[in-house]
Design goal:
By secondary structure, this protein is an alpha+beta fold. Helix content is about 20%, strand content about 35%. The chain has two helices and eleven strands.
């Protein structure tokens, strides 16, 4: 050991110097020093807390806001709860209205309320296909009405029905052709040997397809019987695609 180290060792082992002041004052001074340091620490912590509160208050926008959440491990979680917030009232949708109407007079049920509805009828509308009317069947009719004056007879003849329009050179006769002239001719007998009639001329039933329904009354020839008696008048008319139409009537002259 060197002399220098030896001197320092001896100084450490030597008695401490006598106190220069009152021991109680030194202790009090140390206590005050420690208290000042602790007080300063409390002030520092209080100031830090104020700063933290100010920062937290700056981050809050309203009473419903919450402080930022940190992900510091093992750190206590602080939950700030504001006053309860009333949730908006939601009005439930109205139940569907179910209506059932029976016509012409029935009951209507709407939302559980039953009333009476008159004149309203609901139902399914179905489209209908129009069917063209059926064509009338071909037919010809004759009516005889004799007008007698002494022994002279005037025969009134009425022809009617639905017939085919004859053709001339492949074309239908004009639309204004009379119903009698649509025939292929007439023939009649007076019952005393005399006869008369008409001819259809150049008309043809070949290619006749057009139908015409009509009626016509005309006067046949006037005939005078030679002597009194009862005679049978016999009348025949011919139309395309029909058998001869025959009609007879009794005539009595004096």
């Amino acid at each position: 050991m060197t002399d220098d180290l030896k001197y320092k060792f001896e100084q450490l082992l030597a008695d401490p110097p006598p106190p220069t002041g009152v021991p109680s004052q030194a202790v009090a001074a140390r206590v005050r020093t420690v208290r000042r340091r602790r007080t300063a620490g409390v002030v520092t912590l209080a100031a830090a807390a104020v700063v933290a509160i100010a920062v937290a208050a700056g981050n809050l926008t309203d009473i419903d806001s919450a402080p930022p959440v940190t992900n510091t491990p093992n750190a206590p979680t602080t939950i700030v709860t504001g006053p309860p917030t009333a949730s908006p009232t939601t009005t439930p949708p109205a139940p569907p209205v179910v209506s059932h109407t029976v016509g012409p007079t029935g009951s209507t049920k709407t939302g559980g309320t039953t009333g009476t509805t008159t004149g309203a009828t609901t139902g399914h509308t179905q489209g209908t296909t129009k069917t063209p009317p059926a064509r009338p069947p071909l037919s010809a009719h004759v009516k005889l009405n004799p007008v007698i004056s002494g022994r002279t007879v005037t025969m009134r003849v009425t022809v009617s029905g639905t017939v085919l329009v004859p053709t001339v050179e492949g074309k239908d006769l004009p639309a204004d052709t009379s119903f009698l002239n649509l025939s292929g001719g007439t023939q009649y007998f007076w019952g005393d040997g005399e006869q008369g009639g008409s001819d259809g001329g150049s008309m043809s039933c070949d290619g006749a397809k057009t139908r015409k329904t009509g009626q016509e009354t005309y006067t046949a020839e006037t005939h005078t019987y030679a002597k009194p008696g009862t005679y049978t008048f016999h009348y025949t008319v011919r139309y395309c695609s029909l058998e001869d139409t025959v009609k007879t009537v009794k005539v009595t002259v004096k």
